[in-house]
């Protein structure tokens, strides 16, 4: 080794040792006052008092990443494959589902299987499949993969499930909702789990069970984040539904059914992650809104075609997930007392009611603005999106109007809009309006026997007034109107109207 290399090696060695001699605390350098930093000094050696040897700092100085900072694609892929094997085994050996009984004949030339539109239960197709995909996605994000890489792993996990874990033909709708739906559900849950970890680790595990795999098996410790929740509330509600479904035909095509659900009680969870009105980011879902609610109560005495028709007559229910997240956003500077942002949004809706169904996956654009007035704040949002894939109840099937079919809904594409506005006075009183509109097209390729193609126009309009009882407790009154008009190619025009009146109490946690 020549002299210059020896000098360079000596300097690098001493620089590494010197970096270990200091511990930073509150942005200051801390020395051990009981012993000099340089305990001895000679021309041959330099001895340091190493107060705090932190591998993470050492790796940051040397440009290397710790184990927890590295990307672990193998952890993500094995999580997706392992989840599929466990779930498939459960369905096959515990529940004994016929479709989960797969063998060599199912693996032989599996790539030649022809994808179809499946008639599975609404809950399975449009909630459980996005949640299943979210498990692949959250495991990937917990393995330090980015959004695009996590989406790729989720897509592969979904392909494995459809082609290797089921004896039935691969499902087109499941592939869409498991992969694209998981991007919405998975990213929101992943971020909420990080927030929850700052409160309680068990709570974080409940939100994101894949942390058991990434953290406790692979030892990939996630950095907990907090302070990103802009608002958080938990509500309890009581109300009723009344409505009518009509087909405007003659003979056996004519029908008019009035339904009354006397009382439904439920719970509602709402959160706003990030500030919607001053958001500027390229990170998907660094700002999102999520509303989850469930109601249960007395049925209307009318049932749709299902395996539990007598129970359906006696039991009323409503389960909703309304969400939208910004894929990217830019602030708009109007100056003065106005804050606004504009960007691309991704919508995932799931609305499962005793008398109707709506679900959608829709990318689009959003504009959100907040205006400060002397008396209070005005907030509003406008979102316009194209529906990649959605569904709605086929009105001639859902309430036994004419046929009994394999499924009571149609797959759709089309357009969606969201309009939300609120005014909150300085006293704490507020008035709120919200509208979700859908223009859904029942396309030919997915049509089942006896159904029809055409356009279905759906609107969900709500208005509420809230009164503050304390800093955290609010009392509210809400009126909601659901309307639908279906214009089919051959079958007569059909319509549906429902009214929902409710009273609710809300804990404003943040």
* Largest sheet composition: 12 strands, antiparallel, barrel
Structural class, by secondary structure, is alpha+beta
Distance between the termini: 65 Å
Radius of gyration: 28 Å
Helix and strand string, N-terminal first? Answer: HEEEEHHHHHHHHEEEHEEEEHEEEEE
The chain-level mean pLDDT equals: 87
Strand content: 35-45%
Describe the overall structure.
The protein has helices at 3-20, 55-62, 73-94, 104-107, 122-142, 147-164, 172-197, 201-207, 211-214, 309-314, 395-398; strands at residues 23-25, 28-30, 38-41, 46-48, 229-247, 255-273, 288-298, 315-332, 338-353, 356-373, 376-393, 409-425, 430-442, 454-468, 473-488, 494-508. α5 packs across α6. Helices cover 27% and strands 41% of the residues. It has 510 residues and is an alpha+beta fold. It is globular, with a radius of gyration of 28 Å. The longest helix has 26 residues, at 172-197.
């Amino acid at each position: 080794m020549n002299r210059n290399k020896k000098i360079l090696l000596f300097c690098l060695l001493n620089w590494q040792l010197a970096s270990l001699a200091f511990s930073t605390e509150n942005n200051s350098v801390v020395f051990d006052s009981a012993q000099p930093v340089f305990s001895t000094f000679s021309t041959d050696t330099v001895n340091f008092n190493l107060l705090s040897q932190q591998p993470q700092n050492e790796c940051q100085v040397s440009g290397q990443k710790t184990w927890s900072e590295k990307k672990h694609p193998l952890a993500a892929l094995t999580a997706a494959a392992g989840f599929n094997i466990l779930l498939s085994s459960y369905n096959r050996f515990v529940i004994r589902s016929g479709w989960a009984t797969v063998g060599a004949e199912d693996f032989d030339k599996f790539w030649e299987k022809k994808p179809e539109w499946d008639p599975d239960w609404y809950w399975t197709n449009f909630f459980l499949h996005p949640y299943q995909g979210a498990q692949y996605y959250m495991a990937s994000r917990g393995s330090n993969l980015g959004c695009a890489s996590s989406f790729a792993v989720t897509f592969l996990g979904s392909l494995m499930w459809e082609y290797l874990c089921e004896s039935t033909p691969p499902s087109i709708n499941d592939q869409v909702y498991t992969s694209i739906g998981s991007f919405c559900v998975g990213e929101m849950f992943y971020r909420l789990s990080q927030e929850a970890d700052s409160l309680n680790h068990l709570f974080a595990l409940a939100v994101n069970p894949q942390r058991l795999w990434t953290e406790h098996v692979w030892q990939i410790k996630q950095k907990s984040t907090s302070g990103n929740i802009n608002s958080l509330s938990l509500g309890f509600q009581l109300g009723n539904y009344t409505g009518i479904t009509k087909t405007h035909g003659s003979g056996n095509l004519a029908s008019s059914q009035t339904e009354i659900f006397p009382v439904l009680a439920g719970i509602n969870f709402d959160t706003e992650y990030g500030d919607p009105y001053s958001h500027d980011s390229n990170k998907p879902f660094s700002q999102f809104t999520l509303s989850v609610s469930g109601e249960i109560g007395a049925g209307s005495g009318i049932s749709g075609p299902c395996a539990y028709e007598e129970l359906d007559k006696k039991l009323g229910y409503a389960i909703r997930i309304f969400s939208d997240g910004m894929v990217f956003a830019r602030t708009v500077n109007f100056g003065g007392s106005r804050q606004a942002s504009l960007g691309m949004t991704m919508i995932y809706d799931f609305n499962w009611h005793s008398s109707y169904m709506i679900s959608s996956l829709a990318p689009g654009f959003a504009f959100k603005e907040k205006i400060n007035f002397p008396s209070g704040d005005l907030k509003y949002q406008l979102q316009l999106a194209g529906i990649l894939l959605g569904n709605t109840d086929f009105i001639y099937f859902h309430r036994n109007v004419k046929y009994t079919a394999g499924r009571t809904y149609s797959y759709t594409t089309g357009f969606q809009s969201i309009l939300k506005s609120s005014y909150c006075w300085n006293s704490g009183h507020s008035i709120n309006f919200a509208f979700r509109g859908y223009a859904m097209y029942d396309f030919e390729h997915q049509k089942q026997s006896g159904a029809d193609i055409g356009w279905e126009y759906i609107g969900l309009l709500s208005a509420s007034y809230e009164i503050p009882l304390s800093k955290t407790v609010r009392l509210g009154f809400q009126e909601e109107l659901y309307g639908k008009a279906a214009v089919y190619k051959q079958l007569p025009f059909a319509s549906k109207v429902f009214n929902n009146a409710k009273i609710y109490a809300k804990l404003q946690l943040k």
